[in-house]
TrEMBL record:
Domain of life where this protein originates: Bacteria
The protein's name in its UniProt record: Endonuclease/Exonuclease/phosphatase family protein
Alphabetical keyword list: Endonuclease, Exonuclease, Hydrolase, Membrane, Nuclease, Transmembrane, Transmembrane helix
Domain Endonuclease/exonuclease/phosphatase: 54-329
Pfam families: Exo_endo_phos
GO molecular function annotations of the record: endonuclease activity; exonuclease activity
Cellular component terms per the entry's GO annotation: membrane
Lineage: Bacteria, Pseudomonadati, Bacteroidota, Bacteroidia, Bacteroidales
Residues spanning the membrane: 7-25
A single GO BP: GPI anchor biosynthetic process
Amino acid sequence: MVRYLRYSLLILVMIGLIIVGFFAITEYRPKPIEIVQVNVLSDTIKTDTLTIITWNIGYAGLGKNMDFFFDGGKMVRGTKEDAISNLSTIETFLQKFHGDFIFIQEIDKNSTRSYGVDQVASLEASMPNFNTAFCLNYNSIYVPVPITENYGKVISGLMTLSKATPKNASRIALGSRYPWPRRLFMPKRAMLETRFLLSNGKELVLLNTHCEAYDSGSLRRVEMQHIKEIATTEYKKGNTVIIGGDWNQNPPGISTSSTKYFNPIQIPQNYAPTNWTWAFQTQPTNRYLYEPYCEGNTSTTIIDYFLLSPNAKPLSVNRIDLGFKNSDHNPIVMKFMLYNNAD
């Protein structure tokens, strides 16, 4: 009997090692910088006034009827019907946007949570007048939690759409890493950088970002330091820098409630260099996912906004209140002006 138990334990250990080894071998290991697009025939932006929108679409799976196990809820994913309907509504909304640039976060290519729909291809096909660039920030062959209904495969990332054809687009890793083995199943956070030629010979550098959500704050500090280094380096070259997306943090001067599962820490007042400008609305951009959305009861926060280098100025910033019907985020639209573009 003892020998049988030893053999059984040995077999279980071997199976466990094989499973862990499989996940370790298939771990997504992106390089610090990866070129995702190069365009020989790029456009030169000649106008000084431009409009941009940022929206975390929550893989069209975090609509008003959804709570989420990672945020204290019970559900792993919504219905297929809701996922398809949400994506269609999101695309219809964006088709009516007449601005210049679109930042999208949490858009899936082939994930269990979104029923295998290639949302990147679908959105691209629905926006024929826009150029598109995409990079991964979550690529896990299988997420084995929760035990009762595994999250499954996740292939997801950031997408930037633009009326003008960019010079190039790159994935820039944000440098944060969960400890092993948790990192095998978590996002590898990144920015999607798109670069556009300006009339003055410099470049407009757009940084579409999605920072960590579920750490104590230590990973976000690493990410924020990296964002600052990239942005200030570009500005010193004379380029104009616009950073936007889902920061998973409150902007300076804003503080909202936290839960056991999500703490939107506040960005320090002294984070941005002198004369850089934060552009945000004080109305909620994100709702918490510990329960299906109930207006007036479900907690909300402000984590979607922009940061502009001194050679750009925000003219207006508006939150579009969609009632969190199709995503746990509301889109943010900013009109901004470039300085000295014609110099």
